């Protein structure tokens, strides 16, 4: 008997695309079942991340008419990462494997079959990796790829061009559940869990309808979260920056003393005000950066729930 699979789809204000996603993913699952790649008990779980449009009503309709679908409604918008987390933790224990995929199906559902095969060949995690981003705008591609490179430079164990399209075995979900952090950066955590992994490659498609739910501000805060939850390298940079400033200040001191001894009177305040501004500026950067990490510690220490479920539909 083949393994059971749950496909988890986070949805936030996706009314424009949900109907098309529904039929595509439904066909995809039916296809997997008919080829006996997954068991008949395999399902799809739609997670409504506090949508403000008709998304939840549509999800309810889908679950009523098709028993292959279940759903979770979160009490408010918690963000993409928490929506995935809720989908995984709320269903953990009921399936052999789990796939997470975005509602816009920009990630190719054709490779789901390859993921399932890699899993039955023993891989506990199968990463979906984009090898073609030509459908993304130059800006999106540039920022996204720089992000992966920067993360790798800082020692965050991300997989280049892999987002949150992946298959996880139940054991990975069990281990993932032990990571209690509030500042979630799932694609950084999964590779640290270990076990045998595999990659499948696909070309990222264009969003068919609706707009991105990741505007620049959310993208930046996500990237920042990824860096600060995994790496203390920026603090080290601050230290080096501080050391550099200190050496610079020594240089300036020498210059001032020599000028004084040479009998040159320094008249202008420029030479006083400029370094002052410069040093107080860099001090503020340093304090701000440390504050960022303290803020993270504060959030983690409160250990508030990472999501709250309002409703389930089985
Ligand atoms: N999403 C979510 N909560 C949010 C933002 C996004 O659940 O606060 C979902 C969204 O519905 C989609 C996925 O996360 O299924 C990825 O979002 P999107 O496609 O807009 O991001 P992009 O592909 O543009 O990076
Ligand atoms: Mg998308």
Overview of the molecule:
This protein has 314 residues and is of the alpha/beta class. It folds into 2 domains: 5-211 and 305-313, Spore Coat Polysaccharide Biosynthesis Protein SpsA, Chain A (Alpha-Beta Complex); 233-302. The chain has 10 helices and 8 strands. It has helices at residues 18-34, 55-65, 80-91, 112-120, 138-153, 170-177, 186-193, 216-230, 233-261, 270-302; strands spanning 5-11, 43-48, 69-74, 97-100, 125-132, 162-169, 197-203, 309-313. The protein has an 8-stranded mixed beta sheet with strand order 7-5-6-4-1-2-3-8, with helices on both faces. Strand 2 (43-48), helix 2 (55-65) and strand 3 form a beta-alpha-beta unit. The longest helix has 33 residues, at 270-302. The protein is elongated. The mean pLDDT is 88.
The number of helical elements comes to: 10
The strand order across the widest sheet is: 7-5-6-4-1-2-3-8
Biggest β-sheet strands, sense, barrel = 8 strands, mixed
Q: What compounds are bound to the protein?
A: uridine-5'-diphosphate, magnesium ion
Determine the structural class based on helices, strands and strand pairing.
alpha/beta
Strand content: 15-25%
Computed over alpha carbons, the radius of gyration is 25 Å
Order of helices and strands: EHEHEHEHEHEHHEHHHE
- The CATH homologous superfamily of the largest domain is named Spore Coat Polysaccharide Biosynthesis Protein SpsA, Chain A
| CATH topology (fold) name of the largest domain | Spore Coat Polysaccharide Biosynthesis Protein SpsA, Chain A
> What is the share of helical residues?
40-55%
Could you give the count of β-strands?
Answer: 8
Shape: elongated
Task: Please mark out the parts with pLDDT under 50 across 5 or more consecutive residues, or reply none.
Answer: none
- State the CATH class of the largest domain: Alpha Beta
